[in-house]
Amino acid sequence: MRYVLDRAAYCDAGVIAENRLPARSYFIPYPDRAEAVPAARRRYESPLVRCLSGEWDFRFYPRPAELPDVLDTETVAWDRVAVPGCWQFQGYDRPFYVDERYQFPFDPPRIPEEGPVGPVFSLIGGEGGRPHVAHPVGEYNFAGVYRRTFDLDEREASVGHVISFLGVASCLDLYLNGRHVGYAEGSHNTAEFDIAPCQRAGTNELVAVVRRWCTGSYLECQDMFRNNGIFRDVLLREVTPSGIWDVGVRTRREERASRVRYHMAVDLRLVAESTVRVTLLGHGLERVAEAHADGCRATVDLGELDVLEWTAETPHLYDLILETPTECVRERVGFREARVDGRRFLVNGRPVKLHGVNHHDTSPTAGYAMTPAEIERDVLLCKSHNIDTIRTSHYPPDPYLLELCDELGVYVIDEADLETHGALVGKFPARQNRLTNDARWEARYLDRAERLVERDKLRTCVIMWSLGNEAGGGCNADAMYGLVRSRSSLPVHYEGAIHSLRRAYDVGSEMYSTVERVRSVGEGRSTTRRLNDRPYLLCEYAHAMGVGPGGIEDYWRQIYAFDSLMGGCVWEMADHAVLHPDGRYTYGGDHGEWEHDGNFCVDGILYPDRTPSTGARVVRHCYRPLRVRHLGGDFFMVHNATSFTSGEAFSLRFEWNDGGVAELSCDVAPLRQQSYLVRPTSSVARELGEGLRRDRSRRVTVTVRRRDTGEEVSREQIRLSEMAPLGDVLLARDAAFPEGCEVTGEGLAVAGVMAPAATPVLLCRAETDNDRYLSGGRPMERFYDCRREVLSVVEGEGTAVVTSRLVFPHHRFVCEDTYEAVAAGVLVTSRLHCERGRGDLPRFGVCYRLDASWDKVEYLGRNGESYQDMCEQTQVERVSCRVADMTEPNIRPQESGNRMDCQYVIVSNGEKNVQLTAVDRPFELAVKPYSDEELRGMRHREDEARSGTYVTVQAFQMGIGSGSCGPATRPEYRFDCRRDYELRYLVSWE
Q1: Between the N and C ends of the chain, which has fewer C-beta atoms within 10 Å?
Q2: Is 934 a catalytic residue?
Q3: Are 858 and 885 within 8 A, CB to CB?
Q4: Mean pLDDT of the residues in the chain
Q5: Is 746 labeled as catalytic in the residue annotation?
Q6: Catalytic-labelled residue, pool 470, 495, 655, 716
């Protein structure tokens, strides 16, 4: 079949769509009530809706000039690809990751057509991050042509059909049976077309031409792999004579005399004039009403309703059943009100704190394309990690995600598919709002706002609309706000306004603010005045790149302290990376991209396969529903961090490490705190160990579970006493070092057991992603180049003192290591003094190397990765593991696996043991299968080859922060290099 291809719409600034149907709500119709399925996967089960997903014919045109003016599908050599899918993940083009830059020259509204891309100017990303001009090779505005056939029998061909594309990047020219159907852009917005004029009985041939870029691509400069293709389901819907075309629900909440009532009206648009019957069912309620559609429109008033309200904590839903003579729609709806009251954000009249995360549609094997099972998994992971809010960064998600958020209980900040970040760096002078404040782009901005609100207006989980991300402020954003508020009563969010004179819409919003700035907003003294008179949201905070995020708890102490602070959304939920058949993960720059932003896409609290990282455990703990702190004696304070759930819904179990146990049922009200007397009701004697393995501190661990399911929602540990020092009998002086022990200028060695590492004294760490600041700073590098000079070795009877100087480009230290023979082994005291330099000292530790056969580890300390500003998600306990369990599998290897509050560590090869024991205060512990010097050169997991067992005891290691995109480590988690430091530990072996 032959098609005359349109070669103009995709690059015509005056064209947004051709023959695309008006925006409407997303729902799935059924022939009648008996068949209507309320389950969220109903798009695959309706006799009226055919899902065309599966294998399609595909032809890739790497040079768009090769795409013929007239396409003859009988002569094309077709390949086969999966739909939904992204062609970069199916062998065409290549994965391409870039953050805030366009892949083509910034020259709006022009985009590359048939010629090669380039040259491309950018203010960032060159050598040293400086302005530069790139000259891409072999880069074009690629095109992909898809073909699919479907059959219609005589009856089906006699009625109309609408085809719905739920997601196509970047644009779509649609053809059917030799004729042009229409054009649409807006990658993450639904595009629908009436195909009745082109359909026929028998086999129908559908052809879709997808371009790499279109004019609309200027509005889609999001931080993600830039993929292309038909990446969401394609639905073919039969249009029945009295079919339901659009549905809207309006509710009004009234609270009188402590009783809440809702008024509900349903607005419908039908295909033709008809009668419609509306039924509301659920929780003992049944309300029925009818109306006749006059001119295809009808409003059905269900009157005053006594209903259970929907919240993320109590996701009560009702069946809304809409029936006409030929069609039935069964939607799950809830009753909730979200509004702004002065400086408070309220849901159902109560202030809420949003424990949020930013969610991208991302799969390591399919790019933007996510299966229903993967979407379900993501929402369930939110629930299991105490996350109650999703911001759909930075576009509307698959509608299925919103249906699940309705069912399972997750608030959603629903965001338009709009970001122009590249406008900030693509031309001089830098100005992010070049398009947002250009009225010539208003129609495209409004189109994306309208299609967001209209598609998702039925979803109860949506509590705010977001106008987009990082596009600056201006007249077009104002126009979007006006349109959204004319269609919906929900508040509007848009962080980009903070960079304009407007500053904020219904809520104030910022990214990566410091804790001090957040506090100033809560106190109403922000220098940005429009943040002082409305609720405030951290739409992005706690950048979870690599190890981290650090310092998240500090934010929540402020958020709980002030009514105006709504909460925040961690950036982000899952790492973006490409999974290869051999198990390798790759990120920006690994695919031959001519420009990229490295592993900046690997910034989630979950690994790409959704395995939780330490960041996920940090967030889960910080978002716990009940918080407990010790007041003294047997009194504890319980803070209920929920908004709608009484403390009685949870059970608390207190377990002291000396054997005491107590159960607590508390009735603390939501967002309130109350003190309780908690005494052990039973005691089980526990073996405390002898000598060097004795537990020398007292703690209580509080486990919180939901009473109805038994699910554990949090576990936190409270320290009741500091660690007791080692007994004098263990530290009694001995006359000589034990046999096999030798002290040299390099340090302590034990024959056949361990020796000092090549770099025995560690003052730096292999930098984490959060040690590399967005501004380009890399503070760890100041301590990489170290020259160690042994100044003296003084030996005595059972003693040795080694003095050395550590010389760095900008610092100089003297380290004095004293070794003393004692009854239990060798007592080591290391003292550090700064002779020159200033700033922060990353850490102070001593490293020993053992053979790789020393693989068994036992320690008493925190039971997971922990640093100064991210340790409360772990508890102090005895842990037995392998060396490989002591580091984390970050996609880009870096410092990881630190353990705080350690009292001892034992490393064994199965025959011998070596033990390092804290003397007067706990040390921090690192056990790695490679040295820090080797780690610094690693770029991928596959680089992590084992070279031995490296045990490091540390007086401290500085916190992590979130400096890769947010604030660096806070002062209280840093260590001034000009101070003197001491590390003491005991070495023993058997």
Answers
A1: C
A2: no
A3: no
A4: 96
A5: no
A6: 470
